[in-house]
Amino acid sequence: MQVKFGYLVGAAGKTIAAVGITAALTLGAFGSGLLLPSSAYAQATPSQAQIEQLRALPREQQEQLARQFGVDTEALQYLGQDERDTQEPVPDDEPVTQDRSTQQGQARGTLLPNEVEAQFDSLESKLEHFGYDMFAGEPSTFAPVTGTPVPSSYIIGIGDMVRVQLFGQRTVYHYLAVNREGYLIIPDVGQVQVAGLTYSSMQELIKHTVEERTIGQQVAVSMGATRSIQVYIVGESHKPGAYTVSSFATVSQALHVSGGFSDIASLRDVQLVRGGEVVTNFDLYDLLIKGDSSADRILQNGDVIFIPPRGNTVAVEGEVNRPAIYEIKGDETFADLLEFAGGAKPDAYMGDVTVRRVSEGRRSVRNLDLSDESTLQADVQGGDHIVLRTTPETVDDAVMLVGAVNRPGRYEWQPGMRISDMLKSSRHDLLEYADLSYGLVVREEGTRRRLQVWQFDVANAIEGKAEDDLELNERDYVLIFSRYQTEEEERQNISDLSLTQDERRRAERRRSLDAYRQAYIEGMTQVNATVNTESSNGGEVPIRELFGTPDDDDAISPEELAEYSRDRMLEPLMQRLQRQRTERGNTPFVYVAGEVNHPGVYPLVQNATARRLVAAAGGLRDSAYLQRAEITRINLDAGEAETEYKAFDLMDVILGNRDIELQGRDRLNVLSIPEWQNTYEVTLRGEVRFPGTYAIRRGEDLSALIERAGGFTDFAFLEGAVFTREELREQERRRMTMLAEELQREIASNSITGTGGSNQSYDQMRTLLADLMSVEPVGRLIVDLPRILNGQSQAGDIQLKDGDVLHVPSRMDSISIMGEVQMATSYRFDRDLTVTDYINMSGGTKQKADTDRIYVVRANGALEPHRQRRGWFSTSGSAQLRPGDAIVVPLDTTYTENLELWSQVTGIIYNSAVALAAINGI
């Protein structure tokens, strides 16, 4: 059992001298009181378990241990009384660690003798003093350090144990102690004076003595247990006092045994005092930073380790490998400080290092260029706070290639570099869907970083043509666009090989595109592309409205845009340009409209011409009129705007015979060929000899198309033909939307005011309104096909439009009944039966039926009332039924609701249902 106790505190609260006691006891030695000296032990407050072990010894042995190690015997009765009430027992072999943060709160004052502490008050939360954690903490056990090799320079002293083994004529093993006179007494050999010798000298002396005093004997000498020595650690120690350590312990080991330093201790000037004189000054930075332990001397009995207060300190943070607060001494420089901090990180910007300094009662800030060797060798001052920042993300001596290319990213820039130096082959360097006619070079000029944009033909640049193979400046961005605006267009027009690009390359292109967007959208506070202009309302006007063209409701959503489309790649560039003005005071945008593939707003390039703007818009459509185009220009003169129109021959511009320079806010309008039309298509279905979709010329009539289709079959039911038109479908959809909005307002108004006489809940009315909106408009045009074909129609023939559809059903011999009858169904047509007969056959009308407004829907969609009014006070006559007709018994809207619009609602629903039923029956 090994026992050790440090600070002993009396029960009455008085402080007893701090001492260390180590006893190596064996169970067999308890009775005889034999003490075996320990080779090493660490200083710590004994645990409760260790105190109980000591108390278990007989009183005589306790007093014997106390007298041997200089402890007041009265202190033994107070040992551990304070801890027993507050601490849990800890096993002797379990490590015990203490948190230095709780101990530091009880340490003596943290105020430094200089102004450094005040300067670093705000810094303490994130920066710590360097090196203190190396020695923080306390030993976890009283066990001695065993198995440590003994250095050859170790000085033998009283109490050391030496193993001597004699072999030769006979083999004898001796475990001997150096006695108080400094002799080692070897049986059959004699005594040898070894005290004061080094370990290596002692080995040589014993071997020589054995050879002289014996015949045929050889000897092996090694160290056993070493003696313990007592040293004193004073000054700014975490726990100053007397410590018993191994006889070959060093200064750094003793500091660790004592738990390290106080909050204000110096690591740069730890002094070893021996006999009243300073033997060595140990700079722990040499050990911690350089690994140099040459000043870490072996201790001797009675040595004093003095730790002075900390001197001046300097804080280093930012882009260094080891940010912390460092102690300085002498004339140390910025280079020394960077070495303490582990050096600067690779991305540290050494050209502008901030130094906050306190001098003559004033705080100041200096910015130093530590890349300069002379500045790096300048002295630092106590209280300096040095901050190394990151090198800016901006890459100089490089150009950026972005867009529909195989290898996007930064390329090394060299003087005289041109586009063809990066793009050497359209097949290997560009993606399949890259636009070979339109590319941009974007660069920043001047301290205000005004943007300049240059346009070039990609294919011509690759071929090295001087006009388009532009010379590049460092930090230029080269943009290559896709030919398509949407991802759907790309999928439909390019091969699967181009769409299944390698994921690594796709990620690389995405990173370069993100870097480009970040570079040109930085500093912008507006998300939408708007500019500050003087308008009537004083607000911000969208870019398209600068040209009198409001945003298109049918514009492509951002989610549908292709990754390298014009709209997506130009967006960050346009946001930067929107705050700039040209020399003429105009916004640096131009607009192209009309018969081009990608009409819209484009940046005004430095080499802007009408031909280049057409190329930027993706070229001309087939419908473009080449003999004439027009530019609308606004000239500012004396603060007033004057509009000018410039007409020119577009063919001459395209062929390069002439060109027109553009200026900001110019609008190019490419006209359409007169009478040009896209292909019109009309569909014939049903009982037509040759049904299908037909291409027609503009203004063609229905009868002429039917003749082209070979007429009708013998089973055609011409009276029931259904003619639908897309234009009418959209009109019906808009009318239904307007009606729904009006109904919603009236329902809400009646619900709030309690008017309208409605017995239905608001939710029920909303459900009915939802039913109305769910009705799909048909877009049916009522036609009397037999009269049209016979030329008897007073309205004449039908002029066809794109998307028209004619349904000609087979002959029908049925009558349908729908609406408020007991059972809506269909019956075989009988000429002898009337409307009333068919209603009676269906069980009659329901209670909610409006019998005064029963009507017949003819097979061609025309409506006819069941009873025709003949005079003021009477009605007579009944609608004559024909095959394919439908009898409709409407709902009495006054039964449940007094809203005037409900009759219109029910009419729309019934009419739509009838039309759909007729079409589905074909």
What descriptive keywords fit this protein?
disordered N terminus; alpha+beta; five-stranded mixed sheet; elongated; about 900 residues; 26 helices
Which helices and strands appear, and what pairs or packs with what?
Layout: E1 2-3, E2 23-24, H1 48-56, H2 59-68, H3 81-84, H4 100-104, H5 116-119, H6 132-135, E3 161-168, E4 172-177, E5 183-186, E6 190-193, H7 199-213, E7 217-223, E8 228-235, E9 241-246, H8 251-257, E10 270-274, E11 277-282, H9 284-290, E12 304-307, E13 313-318, E14 324-327, H10 334-340, E15 353-359, E16 362-368, H11 373-376, E17 385-388, E18 398-403, E19 409-412, H12 419-422, H13 426-429, E20 434-445, E21 450-456, H14 458-462, E22 477-482, H15 487-493, H16 496-499, H17 503-521, E23 530-532, E24 540-542, H18 566-577, E25 589-594, E26 600-603, H19 610-616, E27 624-637, E28 640-648, H20 650-655, E29 667-672, E30 680-686, E31 692-696, H21 702-708, E32 722-724, H22 726-753, H23 762-774, E33 780-781, H24 785-790, E34 805-808, E35 814-819, E36 825-828, H25 835-841, E37 855-857, E38 863-865, E39 868-869, E40 875-876, E41 886-889, H26 902-920
Parallel strand pairs: 8-12, 13-17, 18-22, 25-29, 30-34, 35-41
Antiparallel strand pairs: 1-2, 3-4, 3-7, 5-6, 8-9, 10-11, 10-12, 13-14, 15-16, 15-17, 18-19, 20-21, 20-22, 23-24, 25-26, 27-28, 27-29, 30-31, 32-33, 32-34, 35-36, 37-38, 37-41, 39-40
